[in-house]
Design brief:
Strand order of the largest sheet of chain A: 1-3-2
Order of helices and strands of chain A: HHEHEE
Number of helices of chain B: 20
Radius of gyration of chain A: 34 Å
Shape of chain B: elongated
Strand content of chain B: 15-25%
Strand content of chain A: 5-15%
Helix content of chain A: 55-70%
Shape of chain A: rod-shaped
Radius of gyration of chain B: 35 Å
Largest sheet of chain B: 7 strands, mixed
Distance between the termini of chain A: 106 Å
Oligomer: heterodimer
Largest sheet of chain A: 3 strands, antiparallel
Helix content of chain B: 25-40%
Distance between the termini of chain B: 119 Å
Number of strands of chain B: 23
Structural class of chain A: alpha+beta
Number of strands of chain A: 3
Largest interface: A-B, 26 and 33 residues
C-alpha cells in the first residue's frame, strides 16, 4: 500500500516537473522571440532610413542635373559608343572626350562627351 | 483546572482558525463556481492583448523598374500630458527636435487627455534625438510612411495618400484596393514588469500588390523639365504634355506645370493638384481640324474638289464672320490643312454635312471618356447634334464651340497613326502580388479604314514639312501633326478674352524603331500665342530627346 503511494507521488512529481519545465521553456522562447522582433524592427528602421537618405541624394532629378553640369549628352547616330567587356585599359581611359560609365554586371561603357 | 483552561483556549483558537479557513474556502468556492468565467476573462485581458501590425502598401515602379513610390518605417511621437509637469520646457525641447512650433506643442500638451499626438511619421534620426532627451511621458509608435523618392516627378500620375496611407489622388487612388495592404495581428503577453512579449500566435499582415506603370521616369523627367522651361519662357499660366505609344495606348509620360511634390500633399494647393491633361476641357482650335480631314478623306471629298476659294481671309457665316490668319484665295485640299485655313475647313465641313461630322467626332472619341486609369477624367463638351445652331456647323469643325481634353486629342491622333484602331490610353502595365501577376489586355477596335488614315497621315506630315508646324520638324524622322491656336472663353466677361489664347500641338513621329504621339498645350502664353511657335518647338525638344534615348536603349539591349 505504502509502496503504491510512493509510486503515485513520484509520477505526480515527474509530471509536474515536466509541465513546469515546458512553461519555463515557452517563456524563455517568448523572450527570445521578442528580442528577435526588436532587432528585426531596428534593422528595418535602419534600412528604410538609409534607403530614404540614398534616394533623396540620388533621384533622377539630381542625376540628370549632374549629367547636364558635366556636359554629358545622349550619343547621336554620329557619336561613337565603345562597349568594353575586357579588363579596363588605361589607354582607352585616357582617350580625349570619352567618359566612362559603369553599368550593372561589371561592364563599362565609354561614351563621347560634348 | 489549568488543563481545562488550556483546553478552553485551544478550543477558541481552533474555532478562530476553523472559521477563518472556512470563510476562505467559501470564498474560493464562490469565485470558482460562480465568478469563474468573468475572472478568467479579466486575468486574460490583463496578461494578453492583441496588437495590430500594419500591412505594407504596394510599391509603384516605372517601366524600367525605378521605384516611384514605396513605404518606409516612420515614427509617430505621442505624449501623455498627465505625466508632464513642466510643459514649457517639454515644448521647447520637442519643438527644436521635431521642427514643430512651440505654441502648437504647448497647446497639445495642455489638453486634458492621456494621449495626444505630437508629430506623426517622423524620421529615424528625429526619433533617436527624442529618445536621447529621455523625456518622461513621451513615447513613439512605429508606422508606415508613403515616400516618393523622385520628389515631384510624375506627381500628377502618382497622386498621393493621406496620413493613414489611403490613396486620395492619382494612381494611388485609382488602384487603392490593389495597393493597400491588409492589417495583421499578433497576440502579446505582458510579463510581471509590464514588458510585452511576442507570442507565436501571429496573423501576418498582407503586403499590397506592386504596380508597374507604363511611364518611363527618364522621359517623364525631360517632359517635365522642357514643359517648365516653355511655360516660364512664354510667361504662360500653365501647360500640359502627354506622350503615348499609339499602337497599344501605353502612356510614357504625362505632365502638368505647375506641379507639386506628393511627399507634401497636404501642403499643396488644390489648383496645382488638378491634372489638366484629363480634367481640363478647352476649345482646341485648329487641332480639331483633324476630324474634318478624316471625314473628308473617308467620304472622298478630297478626290472630288480641286481647289477651295478661301474668300481672301473674310467669310460671312450665319451669326458671325470667319477670319483666316492670312488672306488666302484658292487653296488645294492639302493646302487648306497645311495653311490651317478656317474658312477652307468650314466650307469643307459644310460640304460634308453635320451628320457626317458628328459621326466622325464620335468615331475619334470626342465627347466621351477615354477610359484612362486615373480618377477625375472629363468627358469634354460636345453639343448634341439636335442642338447645333446654323453657326455650329461652321465653327465646330475649326475647334470652337466644343470642349476637349488633351488626352482625347492624343487618343484621336493615335487612331490616325496606328492604322485606324481605337485604343485605351492607360498607365498600369502590371499588378504584381504574391499570388498573381495581372496584365490587363486592352482591346483594339477598328474605327477607321487603313487607307483613310494613311492619306491623313501624309497630309499631317506636310503640315510639319511645309505648313504651320514647321518648328516641329526633325531631320531624318517622319513627323506629322496639327497646330492649334484658340482664343479662350472668359466666364467672368461672358465672351472670348482678347489676349488669352491656348496654344496646342498634337503630333506624331515615326521611324523604323519607334512610333510616338505627343500632345502639348500651353495656356495663356505671352510672347507669342501661336501653337506653331509655342507648342511645336516643345514637341520637337521632347521628341528629339526620346528618340536619342530609345535608340540608345535599343543599342544597349542588343549588346
Amino acid at each position: 500500500m505504502m509502496r503504491n503511494k510512493i509510486i503515485i507521488l513520484f509520477f505526480l512529481f515527474i509530471l509536474t516537473f515536466f509541465y513546469l519545465h515546458l512553461k519555463i521553456s515557452l517563456n524563455v522562447e517568448m523572450y527570445k522571440l521578442t528580442s528577435s522582433y526588436q532587432l528585426y524592427n531596428k534593422l528595418i528602421d535602419k534600412r528604410d532610413a538609409l534607403l530614404y537618405n540614398l534616394t533623396q541624394r540620388t533621384n533622377l532629378k539630381i542625376i540628370n542635373q549632374w549629367a547636364e553640369n558635366n556636359q554629358f549628352v545622349l550619343p547621336s547616330q554620329k557619336s561613337l559608343i565603345v562597349f568594353n567587356r575586357e579588363e579596363k585599359s588605361e589607354e582607352i581611359r585616357s582617350v580625349k572626350n570619352y567618359r566612362t560609365f559603369h553599368l550593372f554586371g561589371g561592364r563599362e561603357v565609354f561614351a563621347q562627351g560634348r | 483546572m489549568i488543563y481545562t483552561r488550556i483546553r478552553g483556549r485551544t478550543f477558541y483558537v481552533f474555532i478562530f482558525f476553523f472559521s477563518f479557513f472556512f470563510f476562505i474556502l467559501l470564498r474560493i468556492g464562490y469565485l470558482q463556481l460562480f465568478r469563474n468565467s468573468f475572472l478568467k476573462k479579466l486575468a486574460k485581458s490583463q496578461r494578453y492583448s492583441l496588437i495590430h501590425i500594419e500591412g505594407e502598401r504596394g510599391k509603384i515602379y516605372d517601366c524600367q523598374g525605378r521605384i516611384l513610390a514605396t513605404d518606409i518605417n516612420a515614427f509617430s511621437i505621442y505624449a501623455d500630458p498627465k505625466l508632464i509637469k513642466d510643459k514649457k520646457k517639454y515644448s521647447l525641447l520637442l519643438s527644436s527636435a521635431l521642427g514643430v512650433s512651440t505654441s502648437l506643442i504647448e497647446k497639445r500638451l495642455s489638453r486634458n487627455r492621456r494621449f495626444v499626438w505630437i508629430k506623426r511619421k517622423v524620421s529615424l534620426e528625429k526619433k533617436e534625438k527624442i529618445e536621447k532627451l529621455n523625456l518622461k511621458g513621451i513615447g513613439w509608435v512605429r508606422e508606415k510612411k508613403r515616400v516618393y523618392p523622385q520628389g515631384s516627378l510624375a506627381a500628377h500620375i502618382l497622386g498621393g495618400v493621406n496620413i493613414d496611407n489611403h490613396g486620395i489622388e492619382g494612381i494611388e487612388l485609382f488602384y487603392d484596393t490593389y495597393l493597400r495592404g491588409k492589417k495583421g495581428m499578433m497576440q502579446v503577453r505582458r510579463d510581471s514588469s509590464s514588458i510585452l512579449l511576442s507570442s507565436p500566435f501571429v496573423l501576418y499582415p498582407q503586403k499590397g500588390a506592386d504596380l508597374v506603370l507604363t511611364v518611363d521616369a527618364q522621359i517623364q523627367y525631360w517632359v517635365e523639365k522642357y514643359l517648365e522651361d516653355t511655360v516660364n519662357y512664354f510667361n504662360a499660366r500653365k501647360g500640359a504634355v502627354v506622350v503615348i505609344n499609339p499602337y497599344n495606348g501605353e502612356i510614357l509620360a504625362l505632365a502638368n506645370f505647375p506641379s507639386f511634390d506628393p511627399n507634401f500633399l497636404s501642403k499643396t494647393s488644390q489648383k496645382n493638384l488638378r491634372n489638366y491633361t484629363i480634367s481640363s476641357t478647352f476649345e482646341p482650335g485648329s487641332v480639331f481640324k483633324i476630324v474634318t480631314l478624316i471625314a473628308c478623306i473617308a467620304k472622298r471629298v478630297d478626290e472630288k474638289i480641286n481647289t477651295i476659294f478661301c474668300e481672301r481671309g473674310r467669310f460671312k457665316i450665319p451669326g458671325t464672320i470667319l477670319h483666316d490668319y492670312r488672306p488666302y484665295s484658292n487653296l488645294t485640299f492639302k493646302g487648306v490643312f497645311k495653311r490651317s485655313s478656317n474658312i477652307g475647313v468650314a466650307k469643307l465641313a459644310n460640304l460634308l454635312g453635320r451628320k457626317v461630322l458628328w459621326e466622325y467626332i464620335q468615331k475619334l472619341g470626342f465627347g466621351k471618356k477615354t477610359g484612362i486609369d486615373l480618377p477625375g477624367e472629363a468627358r469634354g463638351l460636345v453639343k448634341p447634334i439636335n442642338s447645333w445652331s446654323k453657326t455650329s456647323s461652321y465653327i465646330i469643325p475649326i475647334g470652337q464651340e466644343i470642349g476637349v481634353t488633351l488626352i482625347q486629342l492624343v487618343k484621336a491622333m493615335s487612331i490616325i497613326v496606328n492604322g485606324g484602331f481605337d485604343i485605351q490610353p492607360h498607365l498600369a502595365k502590371k499588378i504584381i502580388s504574391d499570388n498573381f501577376v495581372w496584365e490587363k489586355k486592352y482591346e483594339k477596335k477598328r474605327v477607321l479604314s487603313p487607307w483613310v488614315v494613311e492619306k491623313a497621315k501624309k497630309i499631317l506630315v506636310q503640315v510639319v514639312e511645309e505648313g504651320t508646324g514647321r518648328r516641329a520638324k526633325i531631320k531624318y524622322v517622319r513627323v506629322g501633326g496639327k497646330t492649334g491656336t484658340a482664343q479662350r472663353f472668359n466666364i467672368q466677361l461672358g465672351r472670348y478674352a482678347p489676349y488669352s489664347y491656348q496654344a496646342s500641338f498634337v503630333g506624331f513621329l515615326e521611324n523604323e524603331k519607334l512610333s510616338l504621339v505627343i500632345g502639348v498645350t500651353i495656356e495663356e502664353p505671352k510672347k507669342s500665342h501661336l501653337g506653331g511657335v509655342v507648342a511645336a518647338p516643345l514637341f520637337k525638344k521632347i521628341a528629339e530627346k526620346i528618340l536619342a534615348y530609345k535608340v540608345l536603349q535599343l543599342e544597349l539591349a542588343k549588346q
